[in-house]
Design goal:
InterPro entries: ABC1_dom, Kinase-like_dom_sf, UbiB, UbiB_bact, UbiB_kinase. Keywords: ATP-binding, Cell inner membrane, Cell membrane, Kinase, Membrane, Nucleotide-binding, Transferase, Transmembrane, Transmembrane helix, Ubiquinone biosynthesis. Pathway: Cofactor biosynthesis; ubiquinone biosynthesis [regulation]. This protein is of the alpha+beta class and 520 residues long. 63% of the residues lie in helices and 8% in strands. The chain contains 22 helices and 11 strands. Strands 1, 2, 3, 4 and 6 form a 5-stranded antiparallel β-sheet that branches. The protein has a 4-stranded mixed β-sheet with strand order 5-10-9-7.
Length: 520
């Protein structure tokens, strides 16, 4: 798609946000005077119905009007409170991923195209949809008398998202160019992460792989599992999995009526999440209560594995030490880990950073569990990252946000739930297993493996070094030369850039005139 189309689509997005009262609900504090004045003018165009609604309700209606892509974008930004702020992140987290059903005949066509077999050969029965989201919808079906859930990608959603993400890139580039303070948050990188995450989510084979991997990792874990995948009936546009008979964790009354131990469920949930994160480095990053069921045996079953997160060995080690430092109130060690990991620029004072960390950690220990606001703690954490010039780490932000969501679900089950007390057995055991003598042996083993690989690669490295040295000598004697084809390509690229700039200015002017006419 062209940049011109992106400008027009952004104009529509802006108009919808104005009409639904989202722009007028933005905080004025910190805005330049001209922007604050322009924001105040938008109140004139807000629908009367929206004026009486809360900010979350306005936002939900605006995003629904904009379509499935923006529902997904909003849900992604809900995982990035560092970008949109903690309050707006909470509002975005309330977005309901419920869309209109598309016809069953289209679902069947999608399945047959993806799997290359007639629907009657695949399923003994295939029912009407029971749930529909921005990317896919779910049908009940049967295979040889066994009930299964079939998830089918929404038709046309990939192209729709590709069009909408172009506008997001445009906004991100302008933000980095004109708002220097936002560069620390890396908006273009955030948009790239959104694009990659959603593309992966739209390929249901990858969701099936995630389910399979987490299933293997948690095979022997107490109180937690994921559905089994039917690989024969899974492809790019369809995934078939075990049907789960259970109660959603959002229905606390039904859980209590079924006789489940809510306190035990809360503890199992947070401990399972920490095991996946620390032990496996692979976790479900969308663990809201709608994606969590409790089966008749009292086992938590997690579904919808479209969004997952990964942490490397070093990141897991740093995370464990940071969590354990908070649990044991060793704030200096927490600060040291941040500096060792490179999360805080080295020119800052470690003692001052430890003091800031103490300001975050002490409320955890100084208040009753039911009065601790994890959202407030997250807000304090982001204020500290800004104060100490910490760059955004997408994998850690996703982890922090998921941890807040999981803690919120646990608190819903048990209002007096204390996440830090429940976390200690898992985190403490991981520390003892991985940061003691066992860690030294593991590091030695990894070091030996790396040394062997380096030795094997030495002849190739030597040959490439010799070749590079010869190229450097040639350049020093004759200079750098472009061939005719390269010079022509550079010239054409410059010409395209200049034309695009002129066209963009014309499109902006035309869009402003069109908006003025509509307002008149």
């Amino acid at each position: 798609m062209s940049t011109i189309g992106a400008y027009f689509r952004l104009s529509r997005v802006g108009w919808v946000l104005v009409r639904e009262g989202v722009v007028s609900a933005l905080p004025t504090q910190g805005m330049p005077p001209m922007l604050a004045f322009a924001k105040s003018l938008t109140r004139i165009f807000v629908k009367p119905r929206s004026i009486k609604e809360s900010r979350a309700e306005r936002l939900a209606r605006a995003v629904s009007r904009l379509g499935p892509s923006y529902v997904k974008i909003g849900q992604f930004l809900a995982t990035r409170p560092d970008v949109v702020g903690v309050d707006w992140s909470a509002d975005l987290a309330l977005l309901q991923d419920r869309m209109a059903f598309f016809p069953t005949a289209i679902s069947k066509g999608q399945i047959e195209t993806s799997l290359g077999r007639p629907i009657d050969d695949l399923y003994t029965s295939f029912g009407e949809p029971i749930a529909a989201a921005s990317i896919a919808q779910v049908h009940p079906a049967e295979v040889a008398g066994k009930k299964v859930a079939v998830k089918v990608v929404r038709p046309g959603v990939r192209q729709r998202f590709a069009n909408d993400i172009e506008g997001m890139y445009l906004v991100a580039h302008m933000q980095e160019r004109f708002m220097r303070s936002s560069r620390r948050l890396r908006p273009v990188e955030v948009t790239r992460t959104l694009e990659q995450t959603t593309k992966l989510e739209m390929d249901l084979r990858l969701e099936a792989a995630a389910l399979s991997e987490i299933g293997e990792n948690t095979r022997d874990d107490p109180g937690f599992r994921v559905p089994n995948v039917d690989w024969e009936r899974t492809g790019r546009d369809v995934i078939t999995m075990e049907w789960i008979d259970g109660v959603k964790m959002s229905d606390v009354a039904a859980l209590r009526a079924a006789g489940h131990d809510l306190d035990q469920l809360a503890e199992t949930l947070i401990q399972s999440f920490l095991r996946h994160t620390l032990r496996d480095g692979f976790f479900h990053a969308d663990m809201h209560p709608g994606n969590l069921f409790v089966d008749p045996k009292g086992i938590i079953v997690a579904v919808d594995m479209g969004i997952v997160g990964r942490l490397g060995k070093k990141e897991r080690r740093f995370l464990a030490e940071i969590l354990y430092g908070f649990i044991t109130r060793d704030y200096m060690r927490v600060a040291q880990v941040h500096f060792e990991a490179g999360y805080v620029p080295s020119h800052h004072d470690i003692a001052s950073f430890a003091q800031a960390i103490r300001a975050i950690g002490e409320p955890i220990h100084g208040q009753p569990a039911e009065t601790i606001s994890m959202a407030r703690l997250l807000a304090l954490l982001f204020e500290v990252t800004d104060l100490f010039e910490m760059e955004t780490r997408p994998e850690l932000i996703m982890l922090q946000k998921t941890m807040v969501v999981v803690e919120g679900v646990s608190r819903m089950l048990n209002p007096r739930f204390n996440m830090w007390k429940a976390s200690e057995p898992v985190v403490g055991q991981w520390i003892r297993d991985n940061l003691g003598p066992k860690r030294i042996m593991t590091d030695l083993k990894d070091g030996m493996t790396a040394a062997v690989k380096l030795a094997e690669a030495l002849p190739e490295i030597a040959a490439k070094t010799e070749k590079f040295h010869g190229q450097l000598l040639q350049m020093s004697e004759h200079g750098i030369r472009f061939d005719a084809q390269t010079a022509e390509a550079i010239g054409k690229a410059e010409a395209r850039h200049t034309r695009s700039g002129r066209l963009a200015l014309w499109v902006i002017a035309i869009a402003l005139v069109a908006i003025a006419v509509m307002l008149a």
